[in-house]
Amino acid sequence: MSRTRVGGHRPVGLPALLFWSALAAVVLLSLTPVAHLPPQAFDVWDKAQHAFGFAVLAFLGGAAYPARLSRAWVGLLLLGAAIELAQSATGWRQGDVLDGLADAVGVSAGALGWLSVRRCLKTG
Question: Among 79, 16, 9, which residue's Cα sits nearest to residue 50?
Answer without folding.
Answer: 79
